[in-house]
Amino acid sequence: LTTSSPGKHGAAKARLEAVGIFDGQKRSLVKPVDTKVEVPILDKRIGQILAVMGDQVQIMDLETFETFELPIPAEFDEEIRGAVGTDLGVEYIIALGNMKIMRTKKV
Q1: How far apart are CA 103 and CA 84, in angstroms?
Q2: Domains of the chain
Q3: Residue ranges of E strands in 1-107
Q4: pLDDT tens digits for range 33-70
Q5: Alpha helices per DSSP H over the chain
């Protein structure tokens, strides 16, 4: 976040640069400093690994007990494939209707 000083007849501007959580794409936003910006709510949750099916992993949420499938991230591939039936779970996030595995964790 960077701000510029106001000009002779203008208002100060703010430049916000961010990286997308789900796609890794850089985004930039330039607006006046008094502009309201919507911020997505990130929901972090913990799930238990139930099964691995190809490049998908079946996870059960430990709060709501709902089951769903997510793609296995490349950085956790070996760790998740060997975790079925153990006490290793995953921490995942939910934002804007999307889900993503962020890290592995003991449950």
Answers
A1: 15
A2: 2-32 (no CATH), 43-106 (2.40.50.140)
A3: 2-3, 13-19, 26-32, 43-53, 56-61, 67-71, 88-95, 98-106
A4: 888 988 889 999 999 999 999 999 999 999 999 999 99
A5: 77-81
